[in-house]
Amino acid sequence: MDKRWLNFELHKRKILTLILLLAFMLSLFFVEWHSNLIHSGGFITAKQIAAAFFTPDLSGDILLLALESSWTTLSYAAAGMSLVIIIAFFFGIFASGILVSEGKIKRYIRPLFRGQLGIMRAIHELVWAWLFVASIGLSSFAAIFALAIPYGGILGRIFADMLEDIPREPIKALEAAGASKIQALWYGYLPMVRASITSYAMYRFECAIRSSAIMSFVGIGGLGYQIQLSLDDLHYDEVWTFVFFLIALVLIIDLWSNQLRKRLVQ
Amino acid sequence: MQEAISITQISKSYERKIALSSLSFTVNKGELVALIGPSGAGKTTLLNLLAAILPPSQGHILIDRQPLSELMDHKKRAKKIGIIRQQFDLVGELPVIHNVLAGRLSEWGIFKSILSMLVPQDKEYAVQALIRVGLTDKLYEKTSSLSGGEQQRVALARLLVQSPEIVLADEPVASLDPARAEDVLELLVKIALEENQTLIASLHSVEYARKYFDRLIALKDGEIFFDLPASSVTDDHINSLYRLKELS
C-alpha cells in the first residue's frame, strides 16, 4: 500500500469529524429519557400561545398601550444610537490611527482606542443595564447609557476597520496635493466609507430597537416590559399584539435603511 | 536655462534588490521629459523619489536648487510638485467639483475645507479648470460614474487647480484605450506648455513619448540607458532598449 495514504495531515479533518460524531452519540447515553425531560404542561401552553397568534388582542386600550410602549422603545433606541454615533465617530477615527503619521504615537494611540472599544463591547448591554440600574436607578438614562456603550464599541470598531480598509491611492493623491490629515479625512476617508457605514449604522439601529425592547425587562418600560406583564397574566393574545408592534418597528427601520442606502449608492 | 530638477548619484535599493543605481541628470524649467524603458527598469521608483514619497538610499535631489529633503512641509511641496497617476487617484464617491477643488487643500485651512463640502469655495477655480479639460457639464456628477478618460481629465483639472511648477506623471494613460490615451496625453502636454510647467512622465508607449515630448530618458535595470532629445532617438535605440537579456 502507498505509504502516503497513512499520512496524518491528509486525514486530520476526517478524524476530527469521527471524534465529534462519537462524542455526540456518547452524549445521548447521558440524557435521562423520562417524562420530565420536557415539561408535561408545556405542550398545552405552546398550543395556547400558537392559537393566540391568530387572535391578537386588538382592543383600543391594548393598541394604545402598544403604541405608547413602541414609542418608548423607539425613543430609547434613537437616543442610544445618537450617543453611539458620536462615540463611534471619535473612537473609530482614533482607533484607525489615520490622523497620526506612522511611528511611535500611532503605535500607542491605535491599540489604546481599540482596547477601549473592546472593553466597551465585551460587556453585554443587559449587564450594563443592571449596572446602571443599580447605580443610577430605574431612569431612562440607565437604558440609554446601557445601550450606547456596547453599541458604540461595536460601531466604533467596524468604523475603524472600514477606515483602515479603503484603497490607499486616493489618500496618497490627496496628501500629494497638499492635504493635511484632517483634510484627507474629510475629502478621502469619510466620503469613501459613507455608504457602508451608514448602512451598518442603520442595521445597528435595528438591533438597538430589539435590545431596547429586551432592556425593558429590567423594569425600564417599553414593549418588552408589556410583553413580560402580559405573559405573567397568561394573556397570550396581548403578547402577540406587542410582538407585532415590535416586528413592525424593525421593518420600518429596515425600509428606511433601504431608502437611504439607495440614495447613497447611486 | 534655469534648472528645475537636478539629480546626482541617486541610488535606491529595496532589501537586497537594487532599483536604481547612481543616476545623475538635470532637467531644465519647462522641459518635457518622457521616461521610457521595460517594466521593472525603475521608472516608478524614480518618480516616487522625485515626489519625496520614497527617500533615496544614496545621493541627493535638488528642486529649484533646494534639497528635496528640506522641502518636507507637504503643503509647500504641493506648490512645487504635483503628481498624476492612473485613474485610481480620485475619490469616486465625491462629486467631480470636490475632487477638483482638492487641489486647493494646500491653500485652505481646516474650517474652509470643511465648509467647502457644504458650499463649494473658490468655485471659479474648478469651473475654469474643468472648461480647460473639456468637462464643463459634469461639475456635480459623481466621479465614479465618469468614464476612465473623463476621470483622468478630472485628475488633470485638480492638477490645474493645484498649479505646481513640476508635474510628475506615472503611467498617466496606462489604463486607457489608445484614442482616449492620446487625448489625455495631448492635454497633459498642452497644459504643461501653457502653464510653463516642467513635466516628467513615465510611459509605456515609445510612440507617444517621441510624438509629445522633447527629451527621452530611457532606463534599463536601474541605470540610464540613453538620454537624448526626442528627435535623435532612432529605432535602433528603442530596439536595444526593449531587447530581452537572453537575446542580447
TrEMBL record, chain A:
<protein>
    <recommendedName>
        <fullName>ABC transmembrane type-1 domain-containing protein</fullName>
    </recommendedName>
</protein>
<dbReference type="Pfam" id="PF00528">
    <property type="entry name" value="BPD_transp_1"/>
</dbReference>
<feature type="transmembrane region" description="Helical">
    <location>
        <begin position="239"/>
        <end position="257"/>
    </location>
</feature>
<dbReference type="InterPro" id="IPR035906">
    <property type="entry name" value="MetI-like_sf"/>
</dbReference>
<keyword id="KW-1003">Cell membrane</keyword>
<feature type="transmembrane region" description="Helical">
    <location>
        <begin position="208"/>
        <end position="227"/>
    </location>
</feature>
<dbReference type="GO" id="GO:0055085">
    <property type="term" value="P:transmembrane transport"/>
</dbReference>
<keyword id="KW-0812">Transmembrane</keyword>
<dbReference type="GO" id="GO:0005886">
    <property type="term" value="C:plasma membrane"/>
</dbReference>
<feature type="domain" description="ABC transmembrane type-1">
    <location>
        <begin position="70"/>
        <end position="257"/>
    </location>
</feature>
<feature type="transmembrane region" description="Helical">
    <location>
        <begin position="15"/>
        <end position="33"/>
    </location>
</feature>
<comment type="similarity">
    <text>Belongs to the binding-protein-dependent transport system permease family.</text>
</comment>
<dbReference type="InterPro" id="IPR000515">
    <property type="entry name" value="MetI-like"/>
</dbReference>
<keyword id="KW-0472">Membrane</keyword>
<feature type="transmembrane region" description="Helical">
    <location>
        <begin position="74"/>
        <end position="100"/>
    </location>
</feature>
<feature type="transmembrane region" description="Helical">
    <location>
        <begin position="126"/>
        <end position="149"/>
    </location>
</feature>
<keyword id="KW-0813">Transport</keyword>
<keyword id="KW-1133">Transmembrane helix</keyword>
Automatic annotation (TrEMBL), chain B:
<dbReference type="InterPro" id="IPR050086">
    <property type="entry name" value="MetN_ABC_transporter-like"/>
</dbReference>
<dbReference type="Pfam" id="PF00005">
    <property type="entry name" value="ABC_tran"/>
</dbReference>
<dbReference type="InterPro" id="IPR003439">
    <property type="entry name" value="ABC_transporter-like_ATP-bd"/>
</dbReference>
<dbReference type="InterPro" id="IPR017871">
    <property type="entry name" value="ABC_transporter-like_CS"/>
</dbReference>
<dbReference type="GO" id="GO:0016887">
    <property type="term" value="F:ATP hydrolysis activity"/>
</dbReference>
<keyword id="KW-1003">Cell membrane</keyword>
<dbReference type="InterPro" id="IPR003593">
    <property type="entry name" value="AAA+_ATPase"/>
</dbReference>
<keyword id="KW-0067">ATP-binding</keyword>
<keyword id="KW-0547">Nucleotide-binding</keyword>
<keyword id="KW-0813">Transport</keyword>
<dbReference type="GO" id="GO:0005524">
    <property type="term" value="F:ATP binding"/>
</dbReference>
<keyword id="KW-0918">Phosphonate transport</keyword>
<protein>
    <submittedName>
        <fullName>Phosphonate ABC transporter ATP-binding protein</fullName>
    </submittedName>
</protein>
<dbReference type="InterPro" id="IPR027417">
    <property type="entry name" value="P-loop_NTPase"/>
</dbReference>
<keyword id="KW-1278">Translocase</keyword>
<feature type="domain" description="ABC transporter">
    <location>
        <begin position="5"/>
        <end position="246"/>
    </location>
</feature>
<dbReference type="InterPro" id="IPR012693">
    <property type="entry name" value="ABC_transpr_PhnC"/>
</dbReference>
<keyword id="KW-0472">Membrane</keyword>
<dbReference type="GO" id="GO:0016020">
    <property type="term" value="C:membrane"/>
</dbReference>
<dbReference type="GO" id="GO:0015416">
    <property type="term" value="F:ABC-type phosphonate transporter activity"/>
</dbReference>
